[in-house]
Design brief:
Blueprint: E1 24-25, E2 30-35, E3 42-48, E4 54-60, E5 64-69, E6 77-83, E7 89-97, E8 100-106, E9 119-125, E10 132-139, E11 145-150, E12 156-161, E13 167-171, E14 177-181, E15 200-206, E16 212-217, E17 222-227, E18 245-249, E19 258-260, E20 266-270, E21 275-279, E22 285-290, E23 300-305, E24 314-319, E25 335-340
The structure holds 2-acetamido-2-deoxy-beta-D-glucopyranose (5 copies).
One 2-acetamido-2-deoxy-beta-D-glucopyranose (NAG) binds at residues 233, 235, 237.
């Protein structure tokens, strides 16, 4: 996730005392799989390769993509994959074909504000373990890019604009992009948290019998969905007739990205709470990792499940080291955390 004015992250502030009920919790085992050593490293998003290696995007301090090989093993190792040019930071990443990824970048001003129209969609291939990168498209209409999701079996991706509140569909083969969901209440920033106006943030397509695209709206602390056809077009093509449903809402002032498990539950990174929470289809919410006063998943930004037999029930979570809600006034470098969800029912 990213806010319109990243400058806020440099100012420590006290978290709003939300006087709601405290979500019930069922804490699962967590361990840090890797941590950067430099302060103010913000790990923003995560994708998992078919061989099980993780790919994580860095938002701060530069537009680098890193890999964590064999994240489930004692011999795991981290390596820089690529640093993108003409970009200040990276955001969403999604797999468009085996070992082929689409990645969003943005440029910041010197005061770390995202520059509207500075976003680029990149392609990256690791096929046969050879690195190749290319520019797919510039996104001049996007203000603050954020999450991205592939439509499996096609070359289409859907990309979220957290400030403009739109969803853009791009064909990664031709570079043609078009807005398929216009700004509306469920995608634009809410008015509740004026410090950090962020609407649509994470976005994930669920194929098969489901056929919906799901997204988080940070300020509304909610997950929404709408139906998409198998080419990645919304059922009513950006018209006012698009039917959007709220899937659930969390008791928080801000949520970030999320992962969906096989059972259709949502694993939500509740960035400003320094927690990860499971949202069930019936609306029930349970905190599964972290707390405001704990570094376990502090500043979590996104999550993804492992793809090998060793870690298919491990949820990998990336963090910005609590830059938004410092733990007792302290931050730490960004990291990758593994949460063992195998005992969760
Ligand atoms: C977030 O923090 C608030 C304030 O402490 C608390 O009431 C709420 O239950 C927390 N929610 C989650 C999902 O962590
Ligand atoms: C990007 O940031 C990382 C983490 O601070 C640092 O190790 C790396 O050298 C930086 N790369 C460039 C090209 O500046
Ligand atoms: C750099 O990105 C901007 C958009 O922010 C684009 O207009 C420009 O063409 C890019 N420059 C290069 C050399 O790719
Ligand atoms: C939406 O637009 C696309 C491209 O213009 C088209 O292929 C598709 O059939 C349209 N779908 C509907 C439901 O109108
Ligand atoms: C933060 O402060 C609280 C209350 O004093 C304490 O329980 C907690 O362990 C502290 N956290 C860390 C990471 O030191």
């Amino acid at each position: 996730m990213i806010s319109i004015r990243l400058t806020y992250l440099l100012a420590l502030y006290t978290c709003a005392l939300t006087l709601g009920h405290v979500a019930s919790s069922h804490l699962l085992p967590t361990r840090s799989a890797f941590q950067f050593t430099e302060p103010r490293t913000w790990v923003e998003n995560i994708a998992v390769r078919s061989n099980g290696d993780l790919l994580v995007t860095m938002l701060l301090p530069n537009a680098s993509l890193y890999t964590l090989r064999r994240p489930y093993s004692a011999t795991r190792e981290v390596a820089l994959v690529h640093t993108f040019q003409n970009a200040s930071g990276l955001l969403g990443i999604t797999e468009t074909d085996t070992d082929t990824f689409a990645i969003l970048s943005v440029r910041f001003t010197e005061t770390l504000a995202a520059i509207p129209g500075s976003s680029t969609l990149w392609g990256l291939s690791l096929r046969r373990d050879r690195l190749r990168t290319w520019k797919i498209a510039s996104l001049p209409h996007v203000q603050v890019p954020n999450g991205i999701t592939a439509i499996p079996g096609t070359s289409a991706v859907l990309a979220a604009d957290s400030s403009g509140g739109t969803v853009t569909r791009c064909d990664t083969r031709t570079g043609t992009c078009e807005v398929v969901l216009a700004a509306r209440a469920e995608t634009t920033p809410g008015t509740g948290d004026g410090r950090e106006p962020t609407g649509i943030n994470g976005i994930h397509y669920r194929g098969g019998d489901d056929g919906h695209v799901y997204w988080s709206n940070s300020n509304l602390a909610s997950i929404f969905r709408t139906r998409v056809d198998r080419h990645g077009y919304l059922a009513a093509n950006a018209s006012a007739d698009v039917q959007v449903q709220r899937v659930g809402r969390l008791d928080a002032s801000f949520i970030d990205d999320f992962a969906i498990d096989d059972a259709g539950r949502f694993w939500v990174t509740v960035g400003h709470n320094n927690t990860v929470a499971a949202l069930w289809r019936n609306g029930e919410v349970e905190v599964v990792a972290g707390s405001l006063a704990d570094f376990a998943v502090a500043g979590c930004t996104a999550a993804a499940f492992g793809r090998t037999a060793h870690d298919s029930r491990t949820l990998y979570v990336v963090t910005n080291g609590a830059l938004r809600a410092p733990v007792n006034g302290t931050t730490e470098p960004g990291k990758i955390v593994a949460i063992d969800t195998s005992a969760y029912r």
